[in-house]
């Protein structure tokens, strides 16, 4: 596939109507090349989560188009959207969204089960090994640390080798060391399997793991850069934040 796995063209997303409406995304055009890790950054309310959600087909756009793994999401009904997401995307959120009654192995296998696909025990073992959880496969989420739970969520997200992994603040609840391990893991997926990761983060250190940085201000793309160090990222955010006019209502 030559087309980048995530393409947004002129995307706008408005919440609400009239004077209280918010233009969460305002004519956003960007794309994530295959085998890249993109960090989406910007001040609070700048539209980062909305961008992630529309790119993943979890939320609809009011204008423009979104293409995920070569499929134009415009006009797809809910069933088709679910199918596209299931085939091409997976998700890692700050809240790990693990099933408390299931073991680590069962949690990781869940997407296959839901997709009605056969569960290859070796494949599951390999992924558990890769994220360093092989010895904990029989435990339940409550018996794991936060970092271990996030690694289960990542193992679950990458098991089926989806084209795109969408991650919303994946390290937000983790200490520095555990966050680094989780980010290494995501970067490893990109390098070894050519997967594409789109990650929202507030953390300039987390963003140093990205190949590409996308800065949003007031729902618009304010800057797009390549890899950068944490100090450069932090100063870019500070500079861009000062440009934000967002008051929570439509400008
Ligand atoms: N469901 C909704 N209904 C109304 N307004 C919304 C909704 N979701 C988001 N918004 C508004 O859209 C704008 C963008 O929100 P979004 O959550 O995408 O920003 P963000 O950059 O992810 O913020 P944060 O960093 O604080 O999580 C904000 O002004 C927000 O208040």
Automatic annotation (TrEMBL):
SUPFAM superfamilies: P-loop containing nucleoside triphosphate hydrolases (SSF52540). It comes from Amycolatopsis samaneae. CDD domains: ABC_MJ0796_LolCDE_FtsE. It comes from the Bacteria. Keywords: ATP-binding, Nucleotide-binding, Transport. GO terms for molecular function: ATP binding. This is ABC transporter ATP-binding protein. Signal peptide: none annotated. PROSITE patterns: ABC_TRANSPORTER_1 (PS00211), ABC_TRANSPORTER_2 (PS50893). Residues 6-243 form the ABC transporter domain.
